Amino acid sequence: MLETRGTPTVAIGLVRTQMERTRPPRGLWTPFQLGRPLGEPGDANFQDRVLLHALGLLERRDGPVILEDFPDDPPNWSDTAGWQPPSLPAIEIPDSPAGWKAALAQEMAALHPAWQRACARYGRSTVGLSGQVPELWAACIARLLAGELPTVPPHETAALTLRFLCDDIKAMCSEAAQADGTPPSSRQIDAWFWSKTIAGRLLIALRSMALKSENNALKTVGGRFFVPTPYLPPG
Amino acid sequence: MARLEDIPQPTRDAVATAACPSFATTPFVPGPPLAERRVAIVSSAALIRRGDPPFPFGSAEVRLLPNNVPLNDLLISHVSINFDRSGYQRDINTVYPIERLRQLAAQGVIGSVAATHYTVMGSTEPSTMEGAADQISGQLRQERVDAVLLSPV
Hints:
The complex is a heterodimer of chains A (235) and B (153).
Chain A: E1 9-13, H1 16-22, E2 26-29, H2 44-56, E3 66-69, H3 97-122, H4 137-145, H5 158-177, H6 186-196, H7 198-212, H8 216-225
Parallel strand pairs in A: 1-2, 2-3
Helix pairs in contact in A: 3-4, 3-5, 5-8, 6-7, 7-8
Chain B: H1 11-17, E1 38-43, E2 47-49, E3 63-66, E4 74-76, H2 86-90, H3 98-106, E5 112-113, E6 116-119, H4 130-142, E7 147-151
Parallel strand pairs in B: 1-5, 1-6, 1-7
Antiparallel strand pairs in B: 2-4, 3-6
């Protein structure tokens, strides 16, 4: 669409069949995970190779359409042997809004040191979509579980307030899991989060609550955007 | 290795069978050597600045990312929960390679980095994005950009 309007473009693609069907003027297919178009976080040399391969297609004269495959897999695709997740207190799975509030607060407090180390190590955090500081998350969750529909700016509905609160909870846990040593693979983080943390079980409980809600937006958003399908409970 | 067969179901089938736009023409605009080009990024990660409203589901808007936005303020607000975010959590360049572009410009590999970059919601139906394409294209011309890197998630 931009090339039609006069500017040369090159697209990185993560799904080869989509590039074959879309036929961009110039495209580089990269065999990386969805969510990692440049391949390897923290590896400037690897990212440069991807970028230079893509930008190099702009100098070619044999198009359209030019589609190339990036030749290498990212260097750290495998699971990290010996990775130890952050230690968590043993907490029984709650059965009431007040119980979830206390359990989440306890787990967040336990994860906080690792999260702080991750923030310092990487010089960044991606927590912040919810519009609420972490100290307020558990109370907001408890209100939603109790049937209230709070909205927190910049969100305009309870459904989106909760959706992005879920994103923040996942982000904090994932960042904490990457605090020390060689970072785990995304599969290791997901397996740990969805099977070992109170936060993961809470998101599954929130989805169940949303699906029973009379609020259609919450029902739709909760059903699709709280828990990835591979981690939904059976049935 | 991370190829189509490595994507968990049902996302694998969803991306493999996703409707893709087809275009009547195959434009191909030439340009000068890379070392003379000004490069901009268009990211489909629905990036927002911390505190801004996320992109709505199905949004056809484009948001501008000035070159000087603090990188720690940029958050993915893409609707999908079925792609990895742990890479971007460690390094924004995994999805938005702005520091890599700056380095290539400093090395003289590319001419310069554009003053403005662009982000859209990647899951939006492309046929609704003509207005966004007009807006991006106008800004590209104004800044004399002659290379665009399209970066997905």
